[in-house]
């Protein structure tokens, strides 16, 4: 799976295209895993651009491709082919070859338009590539970092061979050194930088009498398009507390019961959407007020029956046309692949009732 500026290679937004090892060999070399991790760190040279290659895992439903210990299956990799540094020429050549085959790097949020299995692989790859691209320098000492462990860790190497090449032609008699200044990340237990995941809540809010659902919309969304409310979990805050705070901040509505329903990764850039269904305290606690946070253009209560009808005839992605059968002016909601859709579906199917939920 190839990416350029975090855009995946494909023919259209519904299908990604993978390439063979022979296609990328000029960029990554004969064997990108020929050196041990210790050797990679020892030979680090900050003037040489190493293409970001991720090992994503093995598909064990395929019995050919790779055998390692007790594992057998088809290995999946992701490669960042964005032209930069010392790989600019090779990357541009590869991109031109792919474009001559009618392929392109597709911009936008593709996760909602892909099959679930492909979407999961895409999300993993995009999140890890984005994290590596955002962390080229050590947060402790500011020196360049190095990606290791198949793209799932970054380390601050103790040496940099670039200092040797910089002394070629120099008239100084000083002995060059490859040693870099001390860094706290090379000592103790927590000596590596790991990918981050940002917990984010998303919630379907139900009225106290279970007859209505709270929906909101942002100004940039298409007309009549609404969704559930969402926001980041703050430090030292539980998920339930985050749900209550976010709903109050965005809509002024006060919540009582909060139940965790399901989760979904959202790689823009590294969120884990924690889906909840919540119920208001009733009375004045259901009065909408947008004065606390200007994030929403509008918020409103919608009858459960209207939500049910919109789930059948009014779902689509933000950049997609309304589905066949949709009547202009009707409520529009996120597509089936979105966790907001799953939360709303659970509500209209009676999740808030007294029956068992498992």
- Structural class of the secondary elements? alpha+beta
Number of helices in the DSSP assignment: 8
What is the H-and-E element order? Answer: EEEHHEEEHEHEEHEEEHEEEHH
Helix content: 10-25%
Mean pLDDT: 90
- Beta-strand content: 15-25%
Task: Outline the biggest β-sheet.
Answer: 7 strands, mixed
Please state the CA-atom Rg, rounded to the nearest Å: 25 Å
- Spans of at least 5 consecutive residues whose pLDDT stays below 50 are 166-173
Q: What is the terminal separation in angstroms?
A: 37 Å
Overall geometry comes to: globular
Tell me how many strands there are: 15
Explain this structure to me?
This protein has helices spanning 21-28, 37-42, 88-100, 116-134, 162-165, 239-251, 304-313, 339-348; strands at 2-4, 7-12, 15-16, 53-59, 66-68, 71-80, 104-105, 146-148, 153-155, 198-206, 212-217, 229-232, 255-266, 271-280, 298-303. It is built from 8 helices and 15 strands. The strands form 3 sheets. Strands 1, 2, 3, 4, 5, 6 and 7 form a 7-stranded mixed beta sheet that branches. Strands 10, 11, 12, 13, 14 and 15 form a 6-stranded mixed beta sheet that branches. A two-stranded antiparallel ribbon has the order 8-9. It is of the alpha+beta class. The protein is globular. The model is unreliable at 166-173 (pLDDT under 50). The two termini are 37 Å apart.
């Amino acid at each position: 799976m190839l990416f350029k500026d975090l855009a995946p290679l494909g023919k259209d937004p519904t299908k990604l295209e993978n390439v063979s090892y022979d296609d990328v060999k000029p960029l990554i070399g004969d064997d990108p895993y020929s050196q041990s991790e210790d050797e990679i760190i020892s030979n680090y040279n900050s003037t040489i651009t190493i293409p970001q290659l991720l090992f994503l895992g093995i598909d064990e439903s395929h019995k050919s491709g790779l055998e390692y210990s007790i594992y057998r299956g088809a290995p999946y990799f992701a490669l960042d082919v964005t032209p930069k540094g010392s790989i600019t020429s090779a990357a541009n050549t590869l991109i031109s070859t792919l474009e001559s085959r009618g392929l392109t790097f597709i911009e936008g949020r593709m996760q909602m338009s892909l099959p679930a299995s492909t979407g999961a692989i895409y999300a993993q790859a995009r999140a890890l590539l984005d994290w590596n691209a955002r962390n080229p320098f050590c947060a402790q000492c500011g020196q360049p970092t190095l990606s290791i462990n198949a793209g799932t860790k970054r380390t601050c190497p103790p040496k940099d061979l670039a200092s040797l090449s910089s002394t070629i032609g120099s008239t100084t008699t000083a002995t060059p050194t490859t040693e870099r200044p001390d860094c706290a990340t090379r000592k103790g237990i927590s000596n590596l930088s790991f990918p981050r995941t940002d917990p984010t809540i998303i919630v379907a809010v139900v009225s106290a009498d279970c007859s209505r659902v709270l929906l909101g919309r942002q100004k940039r969304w298409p007309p009549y398009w609404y969704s559930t409310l969402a926001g980041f979990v703050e430090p030292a805050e539980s998920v339930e507390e985050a749900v209550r705070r976010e709903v109050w901040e965005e809509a002024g509505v006060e919540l009582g019961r909060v139940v965790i329903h399901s989760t979904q990764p959202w790689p823009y850039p590294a969120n884990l959407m924690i889906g909840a269904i919540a119920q208001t305290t009733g009375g004045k606690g259901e009065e909408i007020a947008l004065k606390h946070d200007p994030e929403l253009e509008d918020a409103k209560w919608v009858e459960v029956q209207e939500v049910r009808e919109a789930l059948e005839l009014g779902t689509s992605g933000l950049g997609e046309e309304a589905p066949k059968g949709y009547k202009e002016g009707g409520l529009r909601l996120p597509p089936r692949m979105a966790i907001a859709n799953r939360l709303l579906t659970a509500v209209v199917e009676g999740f808030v009732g007294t029956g068992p939920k498992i």
